[in-house]
């Protein structure tokens, strides 16, 4: 299981059977250039793999206005 | 994915540039894009003084830092709008940032100008954001002129520019379409306005901000509605995904091939401008629109007080 902290919404989402950043983004209905993904302070590209127990921060980049 | 430049593990992938970068090389990519924007659009030189509009958002702070790192003579200007539970946070963020990077900063308080934004909301019967935007542009221009700055720089990125161009194209707003772009030359009463981040997407700016330790989150203004631009940005996000580079082509194509036609049209119907009787800002009437708004707020407040007393 992967834990996602979705920003700026502030939502915490649990994803099952998700083995890569691109899979996580797909489940969140986001394209890879619509959000930055961070694990342990490190930016991840969409092709990076995730392992069970990972916590990632997904921050959508579109600012209002 | 490997870094296009040094072959280490990449942390940012950029489909529109067919490349990816590691955390050390990415800021170099960003710097190149800003340098190219400044050079190709002839925005400003190292001998000129630049006023940078700092809202507190990631884009304006990233711009300020990057221009400073490139050795430009930059001064930040933040406008404290006087909105409870919002403006103080934005201001503190800008002040902390400028302190920690030894950046020159000026703050203008709308409260002291007799025109805090909550008063606009209460006393002016128009969408508050339209008036607020007008007031901010007015003061940025005024302070740039009074301070003898050569140019006013804002943190608008490619997504901002494309979303706005798209909205105005949907309406065929010819006045807007005639007078838009990353470098608007100085004109009677108006300082030169430049957008050095116009080649960079919101995603690219967010990555730079993250790597430079700029807090990406900013609390939205409590008056923001923000709906239509956000929608357009989402549509464009999808278009860009299907054909990477589309955003830049749309904007660049407009600058190269669309804008002149609209500018020629507008020249025939242009209005003459005079200095405002009160503040000297350019206007077509005696008092500029911001001075008129100020007057209306003052009258409306006086009326309220009279009816209470
Ligand atoms: S959201 Fe509207 S009122 Fe708030 S700062 Fe922006 S323009 Fe002004
Ligand atoms: Zn590298
Ligand atoms: Zn005036």
Annotate the secondary structure layout.
The complex is a heterodimer of chains A (65) and B (309).
Chain A: E1 2-7, E2 11-15, H1 21-27, E3 35-39, E4 42-43, E5 55-60
Parallel strand pairs in A: 1-5
Antiparallel strand pairs in A: 1-2, 3-4, 3-5
Chain B: E1 12-14, E2 19-21, H1 26-40, E3 49-53, H2 58-69, E4 73-80, H3 87-100, E5 104-109, H4 117-123, H5 128-146, E6 151-153, H6 158-170, H7 174-178, E7 183-184, E8 192-194, H8 202-211, H9 227-242, H10 246-267, E9 274-275, E10 282-283, H11 289-308
Parallel strand pairs in B: 3-4, 3-6, 4-5, 6-8
Antiparallel strand pairs in B: 1-2, 7-8, 9-10
The structure holds iron/sulfur cluster and zinc ion (ZN) (2 copies).
Distance between the termini of chain A: 35 Å
- How large is the share of residues in beta strands of chain A? 35-45%
* Beta-strand content bin of chain B: 5-15%
Note the total helix count of chain A: 1
Rg from Cα of chain B: 21 Å
Bound molecules: iron/sulfur cluster, zinc ion
Please state the structural category of chain B.
Answer: alpha/beta
Strand order of the largest sheet of chain A: 2-1-5-3-4
Biggest sheet: strand arrangement of chain B: 5-4-3-6-8-7
The value of Rg of chain A in angstroms is: 11 Å
Q: In this structure, how is the largest beta sheet of chain A organized?
A: 5 strands, mixed
Strand and helix order of chain A: EEHEEE
The share of residues in helices of chain B is 40-55%
**What's the rounded overall pLDDT mean of chain B?**
93
> What is the CATH architecture assignment of chain A?
Roll
Shape of chain A: globular
| Record field, number of beta strands of chain A | 5
CATH class of chain A: Alpha Beta
State the shape of chain B.
globular
């Amino acid at each position: 299981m992967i834990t996602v902290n979705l920003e700026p919404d502030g939502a915490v989402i649990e994803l099952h059977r998700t083995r890569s950043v691109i899979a996580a983004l797909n489940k969140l209905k986001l394209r890879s250039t619509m959000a930055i993904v961070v694990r342990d302070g490190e930016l991840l590209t969409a092709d990076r793999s995730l392992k069970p127990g990972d916590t990632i921060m997904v921050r959508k980049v579109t600012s209002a206005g | 994915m490997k870094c296009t430049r040094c072959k280490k593990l990449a942390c940012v992938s950029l489909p529109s540039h067919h490349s990816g970068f590691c955390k050390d090389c990415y800021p170099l990519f960003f710097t190149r894009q800003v340098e190219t924007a400044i050079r190709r659009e002839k925005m400003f030189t190292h001998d000129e003084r630049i006023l940078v509009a700092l809202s507190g958002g990631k884009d304006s702070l990233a711009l300020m830092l990057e221009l400073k790192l490139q050795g430009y003579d930059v001064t930040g200007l933040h406008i404290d709008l006087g909105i409870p539970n919002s403006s103080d946070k934005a201001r503190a963020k800008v002040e902390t940032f400028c302190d920690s990077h030894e950046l020159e900063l000026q703050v203008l308080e709308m409260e002291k100008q007799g025109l805090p934004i909550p008063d606009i909301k209460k006393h002016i019967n128009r969408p508050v954001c339209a008036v607020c935007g007008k007031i901010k542009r007015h003061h940025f221009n005024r302070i740039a002129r009074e301070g003898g700055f050569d140019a006013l720089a804002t943190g608008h990125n490619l997504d901002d520019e494309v979303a706005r161009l798209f909205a105005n194209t949907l309406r065929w707003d010819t006045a807007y379409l005639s007078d838009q772009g990353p470098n608007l030359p100085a004109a009677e009463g108006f300082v030169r306005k430049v957008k050095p981040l116009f080649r960079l997407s919101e995603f690219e700016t967010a990555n730079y901000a993250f790597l430079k330790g700029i807090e990406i989150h900013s609390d939205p203004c409590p008056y923001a509605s923000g709906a239509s631009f956000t929608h357009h940005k989402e549509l464009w996000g999808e278009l860009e995904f299907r054909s990477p580079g589309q955003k830049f082509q749309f904007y660049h194509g407009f600058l190269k091939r669309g804008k002149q036609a609209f500018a020629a049209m507008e020249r025939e119907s242009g209005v003459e401008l005079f200095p405002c009787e009160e503040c000297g800002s350019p206007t077509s009437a005696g008092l500029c629109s911001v001075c008129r708004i100020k007057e209306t707020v003052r009258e409306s407040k006086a009326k309220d007080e009279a009816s209470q007393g």
